[in-house]
Structures
1.
Amino acid sequence: MNDAFLASMREAMHLLQTAGPLEATEAIQRALREQASMGAAVAPASPSAPMPAQVVERLLTDARVQARPANAPGSADNATSPASARGTQSLRPDGRQASRQEVGHFSQHTFVNRAGSRAYKLYVPAGRRAEPMPLVVMLHGCTQDADDFAAGTQMNTLADMLGFVVLYPVQATADNPSKCWNWFRPGDQQAGKGEPSIIAGMVREVIASHGIDARRVYVAGLSAGGAMAAVLIQRYPELFAAAGVHSGLPAGSAHDLPSALGAMKGGKGLGRSRSGAVPSASTARPLIVFHGDADHTVHPSNGDRLVAPFRSDHARQLTERRNVAGGHDYTRQRITTPAGVNVEYWVIHGAGHAWAGGSPQGSYTDPKGPDASAEMLRFFLANPLPG
């Protein structure tokens, strides 16, 4: 890295603290363009290349410090009531009110195909960007909706900072009384059928209508949304580059409601449904998993089951435990398969059924962290589709 690039990074960090994420992002993009014109290795080779890890990590670290205090009120097992997205897209990372020019656009739409219809909300970040942006699909948990999930995960704030679009599919009470995604029904576990077909269809619609970078489309979810994210990454490996599953279950864990309840309790001897085949090395995609080891809603053994297909004697594995003052300790395992697929598994010690590092503005959040939203974004941006 040359002195000019380092100076630009320092300028971006200063702007993040004093002006806001839009100005900081513009400074970083300007620095990367200058490095690219000089042929420097630090710049991405194309808009589809991963953002340099040191840039992403520094941005997210500063955002965590400013926007997510560890002593914020909230509890994992005593979830706050669902909240609207008020303020989610109008707060800067330093907590100050954003100007109208800095606020992205959060709009509601409906998608219809042969499998049915669902509403969705779309967040397009503030500021114009010349290059195609990534897309992150966020699948809410039971009893939640798009506004609540956006408020709790603060994903829209990160979208303004790093420059990506966020898609929030919405489950209707007519399709599930508790607004859960029907991850346990055979008809909703297949490509081209049911809810996977609807979600994949709206993703393709957004890719086409908003000029999304098709190599950087990611899916994440909480609980039932996490279980559906596991279905989608397995059934549509050509569409999604990577997935994040928080407090969820593996694809094919159940074939009806009774077996779903058994899987959620961590019951042994559950038969794998026909749709639950383990992906092959050629179709497996990067996966990041978060699970609290005090989760009494979805048993922590489901986190182990999610990453088990990637473990082998030939995989590279690194495990580290971190003690966090005032927060949750955690153990992170990093796995790289012989085929080069990256996996991260975060076990959050003492955490229940809640989005780690989330805001108490949304339901089912645990502000103590670690910051699942920021860590997922770091992982996603480092893992575009090959090609």
2.
Amino acid sequence: MWLTDDEQRIWRDYLTMSARLQAAMNRQLQADCGLSLADYEVLVALEKQPGCAMNELGERLGWEQSRVSHQLRRMTDRALVARPGADDDRRVVTVQITAAGRKALAVAAPGHVALVRAVLFDEMSAAQAAAVGRWLAGAVRRLDQAH
């Protein structure tokens, strides 16, 4: 069964907004501090949960393990993260944000937050924000249940 015209319009607008927002965030981060959006996502995840296992980081980001591994290698080369072995099992690789990673995140966050706020939230009422929040939470829950 096909989407209705309204559903199709909403779906296409969502895809367009998502792609353009990702591109804008990448441009802003590169211009402000030389980070990619992927760098920023990893740093935010590690700031919230320092020393997490590499596979857990991949799950939190929704990335395939090969993408996580390649991204972490690039970030390790730039001293943004470190990957020491876990204390209790050397087969488990943990990931930690470094001092340079924390500094980069501190530089990046204000511009990133300003962009997201300007694009998504500045013209949204509290009622709209609540409705969008419920809609997104429901979609995430349904995706998690299907996975």
